């Protein structure tokens, strides 16, 4: 390929990475994770009960699964250029509609569609950017797009707590809706003009065809990622609610736990990209799982402020790293079907994300406590670490 050694200018590289970060900020933080800090307020407004809140979250994760499955079908760059703007438009429209809906059934339906758009974008945007970076020998920079998730978590925390006394009920969605419109327009427009071939090419310039997604290398990676999906989603969905039930009203962690998660999440894509480059992505991933496992377990061992702070710190500083490291390892194992493999992993990830809130709802309705949900998350992350031990190093796999 004659252009595989093109070196982008610092400004061009920064613009592409910022656009990717912004698009993930919009769909994943303002669209998806803002529900976490909103949930205690929606419960307090009488719009939802805790179990209904878990059910609404499950519908969103089901949509995320559907979106990821669609991305498996529409995985080529020419597919992405058609599907990405449609998904972003759907995201913005659904976020606006959420400002008008009070019924649980209506909100569940909207969160389902929101999840579909989120799943498509979360797969396609980073995959398109990664292909652009690989052609320019800058694949190690790919993880930086996930900075948008951490910045978005911080922004969502400020949007929710800063307007908590001004808004109530469905109107609490307005700040996210209004901010999403200009950000979605700019980021989508910038990514659609990336110079990436319509189909993925090999080094010799020939077009890569579909290959098997499951083999000795990818199966343990898939299983590991499944554990990550269930393990991280429980703290990321229910930590603010757990804080509200364990601590007295007015304690700084009631609103501060999510802010703490957001703050520690922001630099983590840079951290895990660096660690992956220094110690290898696979070794870094195993370390990531160990830290995340301890984070989910901390609220079980130390109920109260100590456990909550440790959980926020350890899970917040690792879950984005799990995503970026796994995606890079997957592409290294199957270099000519990166977007398709990414979509398949996100689909499996979303199945376990959907199972987590559903199991939590069953547990709560049976009289259990939220602590039990965090125990389940720790077990899932432990399994993620176990299966990661069986993933081969890409250089060993290709040199066998």
From TrEMBL:
It comes from the Bacteria. It holds the Pfam family MFS_4. The chain crosses the membrane at residues 12-35, 55-75, 87-110, 116-134, 143-161, 173-192, 213-238, 258-277, 284-301, 307-326, 338-359, 371-391. It is found in: Membrane. Keywords: Membrane, Transmembrane, Transmembrane helix. GO terms for molecular function: transmembrane transporter activity. It comes from Marinobacter daqiaonensis. InterPro entries: MFS_4, MFS_trans_sf, Sugar_transporter_CS. Gene3D superfamilies: MFS general substrate transporter like domains (1.20.1250.20). It is a multi-pass membrane protein. This is Predicted arabinose efflux permease, MFS family. Coiled coil: none annotated. One of its GO terms (cellular component) is plasma membrane.
């Amino acid at each position: 390929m004659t252009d595989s050694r093109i070196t982008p200018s610092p400004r061009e590289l920064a613009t592409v990475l910022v656009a990717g970060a912004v698009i993930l900020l919009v769909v994943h933080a303002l669209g998806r994770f803002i529900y976490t800090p909103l949930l205690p307020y929606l419960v307090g407004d009488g719009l939802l009960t805790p179990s209904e809140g878990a059910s609404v979250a499950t519908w969103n994760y089901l949509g995320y699964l559907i979106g990821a499955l669609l991305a498996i079908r529409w995985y080529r760059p020419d597919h992405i250029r058609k599907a990405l703007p449609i998904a972003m438009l759907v995201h913005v429209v659904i976020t606006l509609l959420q400002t008008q809906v009070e019924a649980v059934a209506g909100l569940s339906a909207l969160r389902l569609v929101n999840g579909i758009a989120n799943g498509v974008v979360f797969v396609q945007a980073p995959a398109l950017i990664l292909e652009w970076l690989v052609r320019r020998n800058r694949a190690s920079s790919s993880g930086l797009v996930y900075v948008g998730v951490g910045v978005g978590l911080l922004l969502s925390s400020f949007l929710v707590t800063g307007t908590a006394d001004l808004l109530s009920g469905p109107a609490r969605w307005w700040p996210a809706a209004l901010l999403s419109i200009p950000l979605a327009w700019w980021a989508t427009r910038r990514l659609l003009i990336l110079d990436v071939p319509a189909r993925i090419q090999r080094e010799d310039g020939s077009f890569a065809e579909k290959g098997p997604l499951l083999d000795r290398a990818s199966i343990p990676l898939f299983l590991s990622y499944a554990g990550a999906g269930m393990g991280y989603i429980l703290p990321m969905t229910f930590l603010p609610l757990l804080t509200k039930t364990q601590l007295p009203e007015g304690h700084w962690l009631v609103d501060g736990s999510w802010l703490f998660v957001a703050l520690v999440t922001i630099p983590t894509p840079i951290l895990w990209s660096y660690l992956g480059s220094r110690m290898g992505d696979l070794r870094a991933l195993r370390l990531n799982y160990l830290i995340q496992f301890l984070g989910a377990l901390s609220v079980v061992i130390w109920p109260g402020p100590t456990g909550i702070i440790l959980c926020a710190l350890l899970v917040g500083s690792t879950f984005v790293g799990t995503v970026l490291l796994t995606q890079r390892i997957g592409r290294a194992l199957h270099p000519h079907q990166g977007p398709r493999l990414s979509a398949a992993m996100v689909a499996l990830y979303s199945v376990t994300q959907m199972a987590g809130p559903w199991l939590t709802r069953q547990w709560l309705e049976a009289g259990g406590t939220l602590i039990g949900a965090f125990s389940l998350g720790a077990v899932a992350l432990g399994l993620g670490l176990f299966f990661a031990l069986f993933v081969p190093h890409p250089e060993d796999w290709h040199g066998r």
